[in-house]
Amino acid sequence: MKKFTIISWNVNGLRAIYKKGFLDFVKKTNPEILCLQESKAQENQLGFEFTQIDKYYAYFNSATRKGYSGVVTYSQNKPKQIILGFGSEKFDAEGRILQTDYDNFTLLNVYFPNGKRSNERLDFKMEFYKEFSKYIKKLLKSQANIIVCGDVNTAHKEIDLARPKDNKDISGFLPKERRWIDEFLSLGFIDSFRVFDKSPAKYTWWSMRTRARERNVGWRIDYFFVSKNMQKNLKSANILNKIMGSDHCPISVELEF
User: Fold this and answer.
1) Domain range for residue 70?
2) DSSP label of 109
3) What is the domain-level CATH number for residue 90?
4) How many CB atoms lie within 10 A of CB 235?
5) Considering the chain, what percentage of its residues have pLDDT values greater than 90?
6) Angle made by CA atoms 14, 224, 170, in degrees to the nearest 5
7) Contact in structure between 181 and 156 (CB atoms under 8 Å)
8) Beta strand pairing status for 81-84 and 71-75?
9) How many domains does the chain have?
10) Residue 143: helix, strand or coil by DSSP?
11) Rounded to an integer, what distance in angstroms lies between the CA atom of residue 234 and that of residue 197?
């Protein structure tokens, strides 16, 4: 049996986080797989310091629009297969999904849309959720072990944000968004963090405008959803809330096979 760690982090700009000790963080934590969201860069805009990190294969799925969205997966083991997007031109243009297949599981690194900006973006987010569920249902027919990680942009339950009553009509905590998480979990997934920690005031995102992080007025909107049948392989799940540099903090899981 071998243990290994996966870390997921919305970095709010890969080039920005690089200036804030990103490589030191990678070296210190040494995850087997590191999934980043909101990279805000296309691969051809990046230098060797991003594309050739020591010990890691690097895979990028960038938005066609520069400086927007994007996901990156760094992996110490070469995946058997890499898939960018889920085959929808409308959604894939924003570079939100990167799938890597390994011997023991399939990993999807996902940056789900934010619906706060407008009703149109909320509709886009809900449609993305629907299409993602369809994709996962198809994938479950051929893959038993699936891990979905990333910024889901929704707090699931009242315990997952500091001020649920104040935000019940705000995108990110709307009933229909929360219901989608329920429906997704019912496909056969578990919220890995809540397997180990059911306590309140555990958040992964804080507004930068109100110095909310200092007061821990936050939201838990970043997740590792793991196939139920992999719960026996799941050894820990953590929120690395001491790590600075973004409005999100990293999250991690440790698995054993």
Assistant:
1) 3-256
2) E
3) 3.60.10.10
4) 14
5) 93
6) 80
7) yes
8) unpaired
9) 1
10) coil
11) 13
